[in-house]
Amino acid sequence: MTTRSAPRPALHAVRPVAPAALAGLRVRDDAGRPCLPYEDPEGGAPLRCCLRRSSPGERIALVSYAPLRRWAAETGVDPGAYGEQGPVFIHAADCGGPAGAPGYPFAHPGALRTVRRYDAGGRILGGRALSLGEAAQDADAVLEEAVAEAFADPEVALVHVRATEFGCFLFEVRRP
Q1: Nearest to 146 by CA among 160, 130, 165
Q2: How do residues 35-81 score in pLDDT, each as one tens digit?
Q3: Which of 26, 37, 43, 83 could form a cystine bridge with 79, CB 3.0-4.6 A?
Q4: Phi then psi for 134, rounded to 5 degrees?
Q5: Paired strand residues for 87
Q6: What count of Cα atoms within 13 Å lies in the side-chain half-sphere of residue 129?
Q7: Other C-beta atoms within 10 Å of 84: how many?
Q8: What is the separation of C-alpha 20 from the centre of its chain, rounded to a whole number of angstroms?
């Protein structure tokens, strides 16, 4: 696990999976499967509930999550075919959410990320593939630039940051 040094604060509202959604996912995930917690033997799983990596021995679960579908339900829109679901790691029990560390979660040197833009109707407006650079201070800056670029378009209502290698949803970014 890479430690970041003095990250810049994010200029946009980075959001983990919402507590109400987590409560439901800890029973049944968005694919209708029961939650099956286990003890993480090695640590390092990207936890979407608190936006940090797991530690060895923590109780976590891998669940199916549909972030855009949940956002669309909150806002009263139909994302149509864009309402996909995919795997995310969460704590097996309430963890209290993010500790409030500045910067972007899971932004480590060499990481590949995709910044996907959505309009107010839940349709994809575009995206950008990123390499977060080779230095710790570069990773947050690269993400901030891509998110700022996305929100420079007034049509963009929501941004999802995903791991490029697996396509997994990492976190959501909204306007402050």
Answers
A1: 130
A2: 999 999 999 999 999 999 999 999 999 999 999 999 999 999 999 89
A3: 83
A4: -105, -10
A5: 64
A6: 5
A7: 14
A8: 16
